[in-house]
Amino acid sequence: MSDHVYKHIELTGSSKEGLESAIENAIAKAAQTVHNMNWFQVTDTRGYIQNGKVAYWQVTIKVGFRID
Amino acid sequence: MSDHVYKHIELTGSSKEGLESAIENAIAKAAQTVHNMNWFQVTDTRGYIQNGKVAYWQVTIKVGFRID
Amino acid sequence: MSDHVYKHIELTGSSKEGLESAIENAIAKAAQTVHNMNWFQVTDTRGYIQNGKVAYWQVTIKVGFRID
Amino acid sequence: MSDHVYKHIELTGSSKEGLESAIENAIAKAAQTVHNMNWFQVTDTRGYIQNGKVAYWQVTIKVGFRID
Amino acid sequence: MSDHVYKHIELTGSSKEGLESAIENAIAKAAQTVHNMNWFQVTDTRGYIQNGKVAYWQVTIKVGFRID
Amino acid sequence: MSDHVYKHIELTGSSKEGLESAIENAIAKAAQTVHNMNWFQVTDTRGYIQNGKVAYWQVTIKVGFRID
Amino acid sequence: MSDHVYKHIELTGSSKEGLESAIENAIAKAAQTVHNMNWFQVTDTRGYIQNGKVAYWQVTIKVGFRID
Amino acid sequence: MSDHVYKHIELTGSSKEGLESAIENAIAKAAQTVHNMNWFQVTDTRGYIQNGKVAYWQVTIKVGFRID
Amino acid sequence: MSDHVYKHIELTGSSKEGLESAIENAIAKAAQTVHNMNWFQVTDTRGYIQNGKVAYWQVTIKVGFRID
Amino acid sequence: MSDHVYKHIELTGSSKEGLESAIENAIAKAAQTVHNMNWFQVTDTRGYIQNGKVAYWQVTIKVGFRID
Amino acid sequence: MSDHVYKHIELTGSSKEGLESAIENAIAKAAQTVHNMNWFQVTDTRGYIQNGKVAYWQVTIKVGFRID
Amino acid sequence: MSDHVYKHIELTGSSKEGLESAIENAIAKAAQTVHNMNWFQVTDTRGYIQNGKVAYWQVTIKVGFRID
Q: Do G49 and E39 touch (CB under 8 A)?
């Protein structure tokens, strides 16, 4: 396991539901083209406001995946 | 749209429910006096502990709103 | 109250449920041996991915407790 | 001069022209209601892209002004 | 207590006496118009030098106060 | 709009003209292969010096674009 | 001396007197159970405000001590 | 040379040998598909521990390469 | 595996040999009393100089270990 | 080229014209006494305000030069 | 005043008295050889501990001075 | 020892051999003109890549030395 190499990509996902859902949306989208994703790290948490309420949540993550 | 100016304010909201709820409480309070809020960014996530459990969640956010 | 001294410890909790649950698990575990915990601050938010989905959430917190 | 107190506000200005112009727009807008502004510090530099070109520049600044 | 909302403002106080005095000057000035201030955090510590000596101390703080 | 996912890439552009031009060069190059670019953020500003003058400016930016 | 190992602990001390006193209180408390403390580093400086005045100062420090 | 554009990618390499070897493994892997790599910068240094010893070293780097 | 809790401790190891050796010394010392150590992260790299040469290397690491 | 040693100095230049000009002024001044300057990096961007307008721009840079 | 250039140097002063005194000692020492010093900024605050008490305080500052 | 004043300089050393060697080269060069160097701290670790391999390592350090 010690000789693996991982690449990181940075994604922003959004959701009307909440923080976990925004992260899951970003990962689900990336999973359509990226394989072997192993972990993520949150690097920014934001959201958009409309009429004095949170309209949707936006979370930026770094995702690490193994390069075969 | 390119000539708008935005001001940022920093707020801490709290809630017994969770992280999203603490953010929503801060924005709802600010909406009573501030108009045209557009986005927020989380800058600190904390909480208070009582008897070995989370008593309430505290999230600090920056909120940006358009100056007319 | 002004002459209290607090010590900080850093913990990482994990959960299949979500971010709040990962924090609560870390605090519940620490409560078995540490008394007088007063607050926490999130210092890192991560998670593990399996088959293109979040398998579990991992949150690192600093916990402050009063030294008697 | 040693007993002055300054307050800081954070603003985001935008412009189609460039970085200096975005800063000047933010300060001109604030000058309509804030007096005794003394200095600014850039805290974020961004921009929006349309059709593969910079549509406008956005600079966030902290502005310090003396409280009389 | 869990449903309070706090606002933060950033101030720079100065003093010929020392660091604590610069902080106290900023808070005393703010207390003339802001109520319910609860805590401060130091974000920058500076000073001005004249003739090879510290002429006055300047401390920048964030102050949190409860919004009723 | 709340269910979009964005990917970030990091680029360094350079120019003999100035800071805005270095950013525009990076975006123009990326636009040849990346579509739906929405925003950029400056993360580093540098330059090369020859014979005691700025020979060219180098700006590193993060660019966000929507994944369809 | 090159083969020593040090452990760091993080403490918050408070005092009504000032910044140095808050640090000294934290170290005096730790000295009751920790030996061979060598240095400290300030990581956060805060305080509590009551009736528009600093009620007490709070300084967070990392303390390094040699493990025998 | 002033009109080149560079792209950055982030990689984590690992090795049982040491820090330099972990970096070299990441670059060797990337060289199979990326051309014109010019420099790297270390952004994180970690390792895994088994039975009280370092089992392997993990170094995360940003790599810059010229886009033709 | 998702319900484990980890604690982090911070250590500084030193060595006349080099950076890896300073890290290994810190971990070997900690292994005498701490079990289930899983990973480390470097947070500071320093050294002492005598007669214009590096006398020994000092590396500060955070170590994570599972709490049973 | 691999055995060169560089020293960094930090300078603040100012200008009524703009950001690039403030940087160029700092480098021109340094060039009177420092040779072999190779690159700079911006570490702070500020300015002074008079009568609600930017009076002059101030940019702090690190400059690297080869030690022969 | 807009065409001045300033150079920054970094110093660590120490004192048995306290934080202000450590800063003043560093500036007094520098004043023996450096003229036109204008301001300082604190970048690190540390101290040495002997027998469970603060033996002396150490403050690192950046000092800016005008280059004529 | 409590009344010493230290000055910090920042250097980048390079080497084909590895990270320790790049640091040692920077210190050896500085030792030709600077006396009483006491410690260093690594602030940046980089390297140059040629033909898909590390051509040389570059480490930036701050060096502290006592001013007599």
A: yes
